[in-house]
């Protein structure tokens, strides 16, 4: 699976992305908000928001690419 930065990974680099999702009674009422957190886990910085479940995967991939220095942040 993944590498635990506390044991095997590089302890100098880390990032946290919080994904909050919610839906109302209507099947089309899905919402997701992605927040970046600092290393201490305090104060989330808005990263993106979407009403499309498939877009969540694209946004997470974009965030990972940005963290790894392979891309720029999304415009959503």
Can you offer a commentary on this structure?
It is a single chain. With 76 residues, the protein is an alpha+beta fold. It has a domain of 52 residues. 20% of the residues lie in helices and 26% in strands. It has 1 helix and 3 strands. The protein has a 3-stranded antiparallel beta sheet, covered by helices on one side. The longest helix has 15 residues. The mean pLDDT is 80.
Quick tags:
single chain, 76 residues, alpha+beta, 20% helix, 26% strand, flat
Briefly characterize the structure.
The protein has 1 helix and 3 strands. The model has no long low-confidence stretch (mean pLDDT 80).
Spans of at least 5 consecutive residues whose pLDDT stays below 50 are: none
- What is the residue-averaged pLDDT? 80
Portion of residues in beta strands equals 25-35%
- How many helical elements? 1
Q: How would a crystallographer describe the biggest sheet?
A: 3 strands, antiparallel
What structural class should be given to the helix and strand makeup?
A: alpha+beta
Q: Helix content range of the residues, please?
A: 10-25%
Biggest sheet strand order reads: 1-2-3
Rg, nearest Å = 14 Å
Name the shape in a single word: flat
**Beta-strand segment tally:** 3
Encode the helix/strand succession as letters.
Answer: EEEH
Termini separation comes to 29 Å
């Amino acid at each position: 699976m993944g590498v635990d930065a506390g044991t095997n990974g590089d302890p100098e680099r880390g990032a946290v992305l919080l994904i909050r999702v919610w839906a109302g009674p209507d099947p089309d009422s899905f919402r997701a908000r992605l927040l970046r957190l600092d290393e201490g886990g305090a104060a989330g910085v808005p990263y993106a928001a979407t009403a499309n479940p498939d877009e969540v995967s694209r946004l997470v991939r974009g965030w990972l690419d940005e963290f790894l220095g392979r891309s720029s942040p999304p415009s959503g």
